[in-house]
Amino acid sequence: MNIIIPEIFQNCSYEFRPKDIKYAQCNISMDADPCELLKGLHKAKDFRTCVFAVIPLILATFAILINITYAILIMELWRRRKLGSSTYYCFLLSRTISSIIALLLLYFVLIAWKLEIFRYLSAAAFILIGSLSFLTLAGTYVAMTILFYLAIMHPLKYLYIVTVTRCILVISILWLLSIAFSLFVGLFGATLFYPETAPIYCSFDHCQLPTAIFIVCLLSVFFIAVIAFYLMMLYFIHNRNRAGLLENDIAARNNVRTMNKLSCNMITFIIGSLPIIIVGIIATINLKKLAVLGLGDKSPCKTFQHGRLFLQVEILAFIAVIVWMLAMIIDPIINFFGDPKFKNVSWRICQKQIPFTDFQNPVVTTAFAMRKDEYGQINKFSVL
Q1: CA distances from residue 279 to 237, 250, 319, 324 in whole angstroms, order as listed
Q2: What pTM value is reported for the model?
Q3: Which of 132, 125, 123 has the alpha carbon at shortest distance from 313?
Q4: In angstroms, rounded to a whole number, what is the distance separating the alpha carbons of residues 38 and 26?
Q5: Cβ burial, residue 362 (10 Å; 0-12/13-18/19+)
Q6: DSSP code of 18?
Q7: What is the model's pLDDT at position 292?
Q8: What percent of the chain has pLDDT over 70?
Q9: What is the distance, to the nearest Å, from the Cα of residue 137 to the centroid of all Cα atoms in its chain?
Q10: Mean per-residue pLDDT of the chain
Q11: In whole angstroms, what separates CA 310 from the centre of its chain?
Q12: Given 3-state DSSP classes, what are the helix, strand and coil percentages for the chain, each rounded to the nearest 5?
């Protein structure tokens, strides 16, 4: 079957596809090359169809399964009173639930992208996902760092201050603040790219650009502050360890090892969050150019004229999403294999080596392993 190639695409007949006939009547600028525009459009569509719509879905499915499995194990061991520290696993469970919610929301965004119905709501959801995940993870790591610091440096304060109820209260406040700020970032962030269809009027010079700079700067400062806070706490703990104050304290050394394990989680947090910050900075720098994609109604001619720009945006989003999801996969794996007790008990339960009767009338496991000396004073503490 012979395909009639429009005159505008005669110089790139090898690139022409039957569906491209709708672009033949598009008005383009005099200095624009229709063949280059067509190539850019095909690259964007092929990337969206073959790469962006497939790899993230596979990784998201894998990440959801891993995080759901880990959450179920935590809840099951919690129910059977086999967790070493309920306070510690409160934050781990919160972080895991945050990952699951973010990954489920990502499905919605990927489907919208695949169906080419990425609009204001889709963009708002995409930005909300990144912000919510970043804030809940960052807040969780700050809380866990404080938890370990108190357990190692001030064990008596930890014993009387830290309780499961207070941890749940802190987690609730953390979630409320994260959701509120993420809604703000999502609603206004999407306005930057879809100003005409957004329910909020926001001019470029007086609203869009200042808002983008404010959001990126705030997230960047918070990102740096979380890392700096962790390094500072780690420095104090290691100084105490070098001074020999923890040499004869098995429980304290166990807490230090757990603190070191948290450093692996911090690395995954940095790896997963840094692309979000970088994409935000790049988007802010090129905001005026990127805002063109959201102006006017979506049409074949608009897609044709800005094909390369669509490709750049999709590549940036793809890189950020892939790295972020890899961090979501690695994080529960680190927590599972980094805790031998949790791993062994979980494995025995999965293998049904522990009968259910072993969990009848269990002894409540406290947040500490405590031992009294001959004077009745507590001298051993372990957060796990």
Answers
A1: 34, 44, 9, 12
A2: 0.76
A3: 123
A4: 12
A5: exposed
A6: G
A7: 67
A8: 80
A9: 7
A10: 77
A11: 23
A12: 75, 0, 25
- Contact of 370 with 381, CB cutoff 8 Å: yes
Question: Which residue, 218, 192, 187, is CA-closest to 204?
Answer: 192
For the CA atoms of 257, 324, 177, 384, the dihedral, rounded to the nearest 10 degrees, stands at -20
Using CA atoms in the order 301, 304, 305, 308, what is the torsion angle rounded to 10 degrees?
Answer: 160
The predicted structure's pLDDT at residue 176: 94
For residue range 288-336, list pLDDT tens digits in order.
777 666 665 566 777 777 777 777 877 888 888 888 888 889 888 888 8
Separation in Å, CA 245 to CA 141, 164, 255, 381? 25, 28, 13, 14
* Residues listed for the chain: 384
Nearest residue to 167 (alpha-carbon basis) of 368, 367, 382:
367
Question: What is the per-residue pLDDT for 372?
Answer: 38
Residue type at position 221: V
Hunting for tokens 């989003």 — which residue is that?
A: 317
Name residues whose C-beta falls within 8 Å of residue 249's C-beta, 6 or more positions apart in sequence: 380
Own/partner pairs, 337-343, CB within 8 angstroms, 24+ separation: 338/261, 338/264, 339/84, 339/261, 339/384, 341/84, 341/384, 342/73, 342/77, 342/83, 342/84
- Radius of gyration, alpha carbons of the chain: 26
d(CA 174, CA 66): 24
219: which 2 tokens? 């997230």
- State residue 172's pLDDT score: 93
For residue 45, what are the CA distances in angstroms to 117, 120, 131, 220, 230?
14, 20, 27, 32, 43
Is 181:135 a contact under the CB 8 Å cutoff? yes
Question: Which H/E stretch holds residue 152?
Answer: helix 120-153
- pLDDT number for residue 320: 83
Q: So what's the pLDDT on residue 251?
A: 55
Does residue 166 have a pLDDT over 70? yes
Structure token pair of residue 134: 């970043």
* Tens digits of residue pLDDT in 206-255: 887 888 888 889 889 988 998 888 888 878 877 766 555 555 555 555 65
Q: How many Å apart are CA 85 and CA 74, to the nearest integer?
A: 11
DSSP 3-state of 378: strand
DSSP state of 372: B
In whole angstroms, give the CA distance from residue 88 to residue 77.
Answer: 13
Residue 379 has what DSSP assignment? -
Task: Judge contact between 227 and 266, C-beta under 8 A.
Answer: yes
